[in-house]
User: What shape does this take?
Amino acid sequence: MNATSAPPELPDPRRIIVLDASPTGENVGARVGAIEKNTKNDLSLAASANQAGHEGIGALPVMLETCLKEAGWINPDLIAVIVGPGSFTGLRTACALAAGLAFGAECPVVGVTRGEALASRLNEQVTARKLNGWLCVYGARRGRWFVESVAGDVIAVESATWRPASAAWLLAGDAATDCAAMLSDEKCQTAPVSEADFEAIAGVALARLKGALPPRSALPLYVDPPEAKLPRAGLRARPQ
Assistant: This one.
């Protein structure tokens, strides 16, 4: 390779599809956004669709098609998919759809966590309020929460007994209010937002694509192990 040759140019996506089916519990649902980036690198929402409930997860392909038509696109240049923490079914469905669309459109697909998508706004709030850091708390099944920290760690905790390390935390996420009430700690405050908007998710995906953030594959971020178990009697023998 010639030492004077220029490095390969990084892709510069202008049309970004965002897929999110991560919410759980009473907030379960899915949403799709089509984001355009102009020549000044500003992001704007060209089209969006959302549907609550498990029906929304199943309707992701239809919502995607609707957004592409409304935006006037044939294919996107980049796909950003929320990989968790959240609903097993929602994460699997969104990531599978993202992979299929990326294959057909021959474009990159990037994974983004819910906390990463909120990080920019939360960091501003932490600085303005002179807090120690932030925690994103999301509802999970069986009386638990998924907790994502500013360090990027994600854990599942029992909501009735969990206590974070003693500090002045900014709490975000769909379970932030419940968590604040449970902790009864005057040092902890709740954020004014619980979920990131489409533009914020797309912005994180673009930063990741350019190498400004560590890579993250577009695969479900499972906090819990899958619940499927082998039968007690074992698997059936292969047919002869």
User: Anything to note?
Assistant: The helical segments are 54-58, 60-71, 88-105, 114-129, 176-183, 198-209. The chain has two domains: 15-114+195-209, 115-190. The chain has a mean pLDDT of 91.
